[in-house]
Design goal:
The complex is a heterodimer of chains A (102) and B (174). Chain A is mainly α and 102 residues long. Helix content of chain A is 79%, strand content 0%. Chain A has helices at 3-10, 20-29, 39-101. Chain A is rod-shaped. The mean pLDDT of chain A is 88. By secondary structure, chain B is mostly helical. Chain B is 71% helix and 0% strand. Chain B contains 7 helices and no strands. The longest helix of chain B is centred in the N-terminal third of the chain and has 32 residues, at 4-35. The model of chain B has no long low-confidence stretch (mean pLDDT 87). At the A-B interface, helix 1 and helix 2 of A face helix 1, helix 2, helix 4, helix 5 and helix 7 of B.
């Protein structure tokens, strides 16, 4: 027995059952259309959107923080001003009182 | 009345149907000789052609298509066999065989050889089929399977030795 030859005779190409081409073409016709949007594109878009939202939120927080600090600074300034004016008034009153006594 | 786009699509589908017809025996043959299961072989063959349709724009020639089909079909067969552990679970004599046209010197011997081939390890089986069904040289088999040439030769040698021993044990002698 020539095994090489027997293998060539045994392991031949084979025709599939009748109608194979029709079945392939039918599956092709009914295949859902592949979207041109690849999965990685959808993920990238979602990440970009998330980054955008986070950046916007951070900016909003930062602006609020700046506004709050400005308001605080204004209040402190106003209080210092008031305190200074009160000091001046107190001093005037004191001088006035002392002036009356002498 | 068929629009230009519809006519173009029909022509493309007809062309692809021609490709399927041309290569169906290659693909189905590999699948059946590998898996020894007619239904599985057809399912696998259909999947390969669906994948081919997607890959067609990148394939430039008939030779390119044939090489692509051999490579993809073989890899799918190996994966399929590993998934189902397709060392045949049923008596191989009971597996109905699809029609094959070339004359055999001994149909029983041919059937026996196919049965024994189906029991080889997956990689060795793939090498054997690409060598004897597709008549590829070891270097071409190495490219198709992504393995070194010496590994191909080793698989081939061991597969032939195993087949020879098993055939002798079943009373088939040289």
């Amino acid at each position: 027995m020539n095994l090489d030859e027997e293998l060539r005779l045994a392991l031949v190409r084979r025709e599939p059952p009748d109608g194979f081409v029709d079945r392939v073409m039918a599956r092709l016709e009914h295949q859902p259309r592949r979207s041109w949007v690849q999965p990685w594109m959808a993920i990238a878009a979602a990440l970009l959107l998330l980054a955008g939202v986070l950046a916007w939120q951070w900016r909003e927080e930062r602006e609020k923080r700046i506004a709050a600090e400005k308001a605080k600074a204004d209040l402190l300034y106003a209080l210092e001003l008031t305190d200074s004016q009160l000091q001046q008034t107190r001093s005037k009153l004191k001088r006035h009182s002392l002036g009356g006594l002498i | 009345m068929i629009t230009g786009a519809a006519a173009s699509k029909t022509a493309a589908m007809d062309s692809f149907a021609g490709v399927v017809r041309r290569y169906q025996s290659l693909v189905f043959g590999l699948a059946f000789n590998f898996l020894h299961d007619r239904a599985l072989a057809e399912e696998l063959a259909q999947e390969v052609f669906l994948e081919l349709h997607r890959a067609m724009p990148g394939l430039e020639s008939d030779a390119h298509i044939a090489n692509w089909l051999r490579r993809v079909t073989t890899h799918r067969c190996i994966d399929c066999a590993r998934r189902i552990k397709s060392r045949p679970q049923v008596a191989l004599e009971d597996v109905p065989e699809p029609a094959s046209t070339p004359k055999r010197s001994d149909p029983l011997l041919a059937r026996k050889i196919r049965s024994l081939t189906a029991t080889l390890p997956e990689k060795a089986r793939a090498v054997l089929l690409l060598r004897y069904q597709e008549d590829l040289e070891p270097s071409e088999i190495a490219t198709a399977l992504g393995m070194p040439v010496n590994t191909v030769k080793s698989h081939l040698h061991r597969a032939l030795t195993t087949l020879r021993e098993k055939l002798e044990r079943t009373g088939v002698t040289s």
